[in-house]
Amino acid sequence: MASWPYLQATSADAEDPLELMDQIEALKEKANATILAHYYVNGELQDIADFTGDSLKLARDAAGVQTDTIVFCGVHFMAETAKIINPDKRVLLPDLQAGCSLAESCPADRLAAFQERLRCEGRDFLTVAYINTSAAVKSLCDWIVTSGNAREIIERLPEDKEILFVPDQHLGRYLMEVTGRTMILWPGSCMVHEIFSVQDLLRAKRNNPGSLVIAHPECPRTILEHADFIGGTEKMRRFVAERSQPTKFLVATEVNMIHSLKKTAPQHEYVPVPGIMSSSGETCACNRCPHMARNTLQAVRDCLRYGKPEITWQPYFEKARDVVRRSLLN
Length: 330
Ligand code: SF4
What we know:
Blueprint: H1 17-31, E1 33-38, H2 43-48, E2 51-53, H3 55-63, E3 69-73, H4 76-85, E4 90-92, H5 101-104, H6 108-120, E5 125-130, H7 135-138, E6 143-145, H8 150-156, E7 162-166, H9 169-179, E8 183-185, H10 198-207, E9 212-215, H11 221-224, E10 229-230, H12 233-242, E11 248-252, H13 257-264, E12 269-272, E13 275-276, E14 283-284, H14 297-306, E15 310-311, H15 317-329
Helix pairs in contact: 1-14, 3-4, 4-15, 12-13
The structure holds iron/sulfur cluster (SF4).
């Protein structure tokens, strides 16, 4: 892999967005890099990316990358997955602080202790993890799922095994309903999807007669009960694309998803469902993921310029690789 000789390639002072995009393009070329961007990052990053998608699509896209370097505009566990799939490539995450409240709600040591307790009780179970987990957690699991393939994988699991589902309790509860399988649920949740306000959703429905509600299954049941369509981000895109009649959609997921929906089906109107602050109960704009927001044009330019922050290979990635391949790439 080439060393990082690009430090003089650009002017450090120019921060105009168009100028930043030009710098990124030039640095990307020199670094022989591919940019992957999740639907929850800013629209301008989605526009400059080589691939956009949800976690599953991006994992599969990462598997096909031919360049030496991957810049992952997303959060830490996603970049880890890209590294697990591509051990010989340099995987850069524009900001190492871009974590995920959901992944952090299930630390590997606590999961290992809980699994041990279940085993001591004689429980015969499989551990199924939502992709929003650290690589250390993935290495402790039997299957990895995304909101796009969770139902299909869970329906394939042997009936004589119990299922421990981590870390998203809301997605787990939704999956129990649609698959009919009882599961042991880890009590984790996403800080973004947890805060959607039912009152504001109902008000928005009243104010927008004829609108349809599309909601991510990470939302609590109180929101899903009012949804006309429940699905992960790729399924949301397909749903709006298949509807030719112009429609107003109330969107209950991270607000940057609207950028991708508009590009996919511009005939429709999209209204974000507001969140509510848990501290005060006031309506707020916190349907924006603060971790995804750490991905900026400037951070992408700088990581290409300096060749860091980089996701480095960890010993437990080897074990996580088996389950990631079996679950996501086949
Ligand atoms: S939106 Fe939620 S699940 Fe997605 S990265 Fe942000 S905190 Fe994690």
